[in-house]
């Protein structure tokens, strides 16, 4: 069956403000300034917790992976305690998921967010039940851009990897799809905006209203 796989952060939902808040909490917990900005550092937020800590530590004049390791559990704890304070689905997500399901597509999530946090967030956003499978960063021994993360997501959803596409927002998603030999659709409303078109995706998605027709074109019957 045809399967549409979604990244989570920056693709289904704008999680940047809550991620930045957690990054700042992690820095503060180690005694450093809370130097991350929710707007200016949005792209770093979607690059992951360790990337946020590295940036905040660099602004404090510290370049030490040991400090990144020390701060990461603090960040995760803070994020889990306030995971959906500011996070919102992008406009049109729920209607697009409904339309895809009605058209017979299997839906799944493949994210580099830890599985437990991803499951909690999808529940809080009210869309967890729409996905046949959800694999996080720690579900398998590998994660995106390793192709097996994407392909195994499709398999666990009950789909055919050869009949799947990935919807994402970063170079990590782009590489995962390319490594798996699958089409990649990049959103034009994520942290990098329309600039992701420079990567040469199979298609750009400017609004979720356009996704059902786009998926049907990339995965025809």
Automatic annotation (TrEMBL):
Its EC number is 3.1.3.18. This is Phosphoglycolate phosphatase. Belongs to the HAD-like hydrolase superfamily. CbbY/CbbZ/Gph/YieH family. One of its GO terms (cellular component) is cytosol. One of its GO terms (molecular function) is metal ion binding. It holds the Pfam family Hydrolase. Mg(2+) binds at residues 7, 9, 169. Pathway: Organic acid metabolism; glycolate biosynthesis; glycolate from 2-phosphoglycolate: step 1/1. Specifically catalyzes the dephosphorylation of 2-phosphoglycolate. Is involved in the dissimilation of the intracellular 2-phosphoglycolate formed during the DNA repair of 3'-phosphoglycolate ends, a major class of DNA lesions induced by oxidative stress. It comes from Harenicola maris. HAMAP family: GPH_hydrolase_bact. The active site is at residue 7. Keywords: Carbohydrate metabolism, Hydrolase, Magnesium, Metal-binding. InterPro entries: HAD-like_hydrolase_sf, HAD-like_sf, HAD-SF_hydro_IA, HAD_sf, PGP-like_dom2, PGPase_prok. PANTHER family: PHOSPHOGLYCOLATE PHOSPHATASE. GO terms for biological process: carbohydrate metabolic process; DNA repair; glycolate biosynthetic process. It catalyses: 2-phosphoglycolate + H2O = glycolate + phosphate. Its cofactor is Mg(2+). Gene3D superfamilies: HAD superfamily/HAD-like (3.40.50.1000), Putative phosphatase, domain 2 (1.10.150.240).
